[in-house]
Amino acid sequence: MIAPAVVLAAAAGYLLVLFLIAAWGDRRAAEGRSVIDSAGVYALSWGVYCTAWTYFGSVGRAATAGMWFLPIYLGPMLAMLVAWIVLRKMVRIARTYRITSIADFIAGRYGKSPGLAALVTLITVVGIVPYIALQLKAVEAGYLVLTGTGRQAAAAWWGDGALYVALALAAFAIIFGARHLDLAERHEGMVAAIAFESALKLVAFLGVGAFVTWGLFGGMADIWARAQAVPGLADLVRLDGPGPFDYAQWFALTGLSALSVLLLPRQFQVMVVECVDEAHIRRAAWIFPAYLLLINVFVLPIAIGGIIAFGAAGADPETFVLSLPLAHGAPALALLAYLGGLSAATGMLIVETVAVSTMVCNDLVMPGLLRFGLRGGGDLTRLILAIRRAAIVLVLMLGYLYFRVAGEAYALVSIGLISFAAVAQFGPSLLGGIYWRGGTRVGATAGLLGGFAVWIYTLMLPSVAKSGWIPDRFIAEGPFGIALLAPERLFGLTGLDALTHSLFWSLLVNIGLYVGLSLARAPTAREASQALLFVDVFRQGSAEPVFWRGRARLDDLRALAGRFLGPARAEAIFDEHAAARGVPVPDLVADARLVDRVERQIAGTVGTASARVMVASVAQEEPLSVEDVLEILNESSQLRGYARALEEKSQSLEEATGELRAANEALKSLDQLKDDFMSSVTHELRTPLTSIRALSEVMRDTPDIEPAERDEFLRIIVSETERLGRLVNQVLDLAKIESGHAEWHNTDVDLRAIVIDAGRATSELFRERGARLDLTLPDTVPTLRADPDRLTQVMLNLLSNAVKFVPTTAGRVEVRLVVEPDALVVEVEDNGPGVPAAEQATVFEKFRQGGDALTRPPGTGLGLPISRQIVDHLGGRMWLESESGRGACFAFRLPLQPGG
Amino acid sequence: MRREGRGPRAPALVALCCAGIVLFNFPMLAIWGQDATVLGLPLLPVALFGIWAGLVALLAFVSERDGG
Amino acid sequence: MGTKVLIADDEPNIVVSLSFMMRREGYDVVVARDGAEALDAIRRERPALVLLDAMMPGLTGFDVCEAVRADAAVRDTRILMLTAKGRETDVARGLGAGADAYLTKPFSTRELVEKVREMLA
């Protein structure tokens, strides 16, 4: 037993710590250094799924029904496996369209319908109130166990202890959930506190579990061994322990909890609305199931251990986590466990009420107010906040009332499952809405109404009847005696437990109506456009289509924004928009984009439906037909296509420009070369022509010319003609080779023989010059596939060049033929003056001739270029090795294999 | 919203989910439900928790590996 | 007599024909083989007229032309440029460089002689 004062002090202290953490979280957020911007904190905040139900209810269930406590945690595990796909899409949609609650989400998807929003809110409130009561009940029950007081004795002064808790939590929720209007509905302090609570829950539960397993017993195997001794206890973990196993119920519970982990208001709040960064989902998706695993590991040991320790009817199994440590000398641990349970309850209460109050305000009250004439000017933010706070208090009070009135009637777990079944009705319209473009408002509304009605009839009413409020005869016999409509055996469907039965029928009706009516009638333009925006949210990118046509006055729009967002925020929006457009604010055109933007911002405060109503009141909207929607969509996707194509184009354009520029440069230099070549050729052709003409004319005009002179002139004329002829030949030859029009007669060639022949052909030149020709040739040489005439041309050219430049005495030219493994190399070396390094680069250029004009031996200057072209064409290479004053060696290399 | 990391591939996740559904329900459940003990502990809870832990580990592996 | 004519060309055979023609006309002939030599000869011999080949190694005919026009002492020397290049741009360049006349090779001997007479008149 622990003194009540201690317990109260501990509880109060705990709430104070929560308070401080939340305050710190909010302050850090205001500074911009968010505490909750981490996947770990994000994942821990999801732990709000584990309420007092986990703490107390699980153990109770395990003690009576064995493994049946487990399915509601297996469901979330399965759901988390696809969280990255489904949850991320929900988060993206919520972020993009400023959706702040489930009601907003569903209503927004189906055409921003106020009716739908109100319906969802109503269902939520009805479904959640019992769940809230459950938490308060757990808090009270735990307190009673800890302090060991009986129910009656406590009632006197504890009496409304639960009320105080409810009020304290209302205050907390208001302070951290409705202190100011955050456009994204983010409450960083609250999330920080929730994450802390999750951690505490886990630690406390693990502590008790460890205590029981290894403190009271000798480990899990020991517990199990001892359990065999208690009659019937070992059957707990058998599937067919209490009776034939109900696989259907197991499956239903798993599926139900998988849906609930996404659809419960508090889950939607922490997973979707409070999400700081989509990327965190990736990690949180596996951290959360790990958390659930850990917190459940000791459930069975505690349950079984408790039964062993206390005997079968010893104590209420739901409070084993408190009673076991208490009874075995660990009151501090019991207190810690109580705080864990308290945090489980308070976490749920805070987040749930904040989420529900947002819905009540945005989707129930505000639309009502707007419809009934709330038009007066002035800042509406104050009003909205007031409504929020009132809603928080209201919801908590409703929960308290339910607890007061009906708290004893049902075990915790059953109430919780009923709530699950209620929010499961959102599944078809929400999940269908984000994946199926064909879902319509009519279908969703009908589905929700139908499913809700079936839920009330098959689950809610019977539970109320079983609590004794209304006569329960209709459960057994059906209303007015119609057996087929018996609420737990509709149409004669037996064999299912109440929950599974209800789930089956409600979802059947829900989905049936949803799909059926959606298919029956085409969606309206607004529904279609919203459907596209939601389902295709990952494809939008920055050029989202705006499905709005109409006109609005800028001043009206600004006033509207000011009323709902506060003057500061409103101005900020317009300033930003104006800056992006590059015009001053007063010149802004209230076009569709601006209107859409303002509407979205307002939706963050009052919900999409109300926002639409408000904007419609200041703008003249042109109603869109489905064709218009398609047109807008077409434009938008065209625009996107264009944008992408443009980007690609400009990129390839840049590349192409770069290439063009390079090609231009190359062309210019080639052109230059061509020009140079042409002018060189012209020059070279005209020079001998000049002499020929001039001398001929002179002879014609000078009849009395001296014979000696006349002979000299004639000699020159003949020589120049020859020169001209040679030049023309070579120019043509070069042109042909270069342009590829030359004829090549490739045969098997003996290079050795060619060299020898060339030497013989030029022997006259050598004799005239007084120079010597030495040939260094191997005895045999592999044959080569080439044109023998061309090769001869090359050899003649090299030899004649060489002999021109050797000194007049002791001139010597050596020709070497070297056999390499895959090629033949010929070197022609002379002992002339050599080629200075500076000129070596230009020696192969056309019309370049060594030496100067006076001493230059006759030649065209085209021999080397032609030779080089020939060698290149045969796949070889020609080069020059020379040092000034030490002779020159022209060499070429021909591969034996063509192309080698 | 910051840089969006590339997350695990959808088919892998769906496959894991389907595997989970199968492993946690009939008829696999009947297999786990047999009378047997593992390390002195009853098979059913050990199997269920073991599969659960395995799924978490696989999900973690797939998520962290394919993520940014 | 005394009218000196300088023939500047690097092609020996052309020099032969030009020399003969000039001597036949009665002028004294001085020969230069390249641009530098030509410039030198102009300053030294002070010919009345220069038959200047445009393309010579080293200093081209254009360079010589410009140098002569820049040199006050010999600025008034008559210059007749001869070149195998005949495009309009080259003619313009030649005249721009300061030549008094421009003939493309192969030229008509009669035309050349007439031009020379004209320029020395």
Write up what this structure looks like.
The complex is a heterotrimer of chains A (900), B (68) and C (121). With 900 residues, chain A is mostly helical. Chain A has 4 domains: 4-71 and 130-408, no CATH class; 548-624, no CATH class; 631-738, Helix Hairpins; 745-895, Histidine kinase-like ATPase, C-terminal domain (Heat Shock Protein 90, 2-Layer Sandwich), CATH 3.30.565. Helix content of chain A is 68%, strand content 5%. The longest helix of chain A is centred in the last third of the chain and has 76 residues, at 626-701. Chain B has one domain (10-66). Chain B contains 3 helices and 2 strands. In chain B, a hairpin with a 2-residue loop joins strand 1 (37-38) and strand 2 (41-42). The model of chain C has no long low-confidence stretch (mean pLDDT 86). The longest helix of chain C has 14 residues, at 12-25. Chain C is globular. Classes of the chains: A mainly alpha (900), B mainly alpha (68), C alpha/beta (121). Chain A binds chain B through residues 67, 70, 74, 77-78, 80-82, 84-85, 88, 95, 220-221, 224-225, 234, 237-240, 245, 247, 250-251, 254, 277-279, 281-283, 285-286, 289-290, 293, 296-297, 300, and chain B through 1-5, 7-8, 10, 13-14, 16-17, 20-21, 24-26, 29-30, 33, 35, 37, 39-42, 44-45, 48-49, 52-53, 55-56, 59-60, 63-64, 67-68.
